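Protein Entry — a single chain follows
Next Lines — sequence and tokenised fold
***
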Amino acid sequence: MLIGVTGGSGAGKTEFIKQLRTRFKESELALISADNYYLPRETLAKDERGVINFDLPETIDHIAFVEDLKLLKQNKTVRRKEYTFNNEKATAKEIVLSSATVYIVEGLFILHEEKVRELLDLIILIDADDVKKISRRIIRDQTERNYPLEDVLYRYNNHVAPAYQKFILPYLENIDIIINNNHHFGKALEVISAYIKNLVDNKSMLFN
């Protein structure tokens, strides 16, 4: 089963998924992120200031992403090199996804790309107000990607916010569950965990 998780940058997708995965074995719940399907930096378009806009659908290799999702549906192994963005200190690792009962499919464009959307069995939106999202974005981009504050704010106002308007909001009718993360997502985490546990337990019963 493929569970799509999307939301605007800073909404809390990464933390939600991180906490969710701690509750399950890798064979029960695994993650595939569209972030690792960015095309090479030198091929990506730049805006009028010469800044690469990562928040456009054409920055992602959707063909490879869809093919790998299909492989996971068939219980086949997927290998992918980690994308490290602009962090020169980070060493790219090889990501290996083997057979799991449930896969979390994370990405900004999973609703916008029809072929991806059609493969998803459940779609979750993690949401938060703009003030919360931009503050979280500042912390992440300064600590993980070495972006200065001015650059973070420029990207948010000119790339991130417009992307949310264009590539998520128009598809609200396709979303099954919306999780409000202005303050916490604890109760939602319990609900989704219970749902996945039920899927895992039912699969175990079928093979025992």
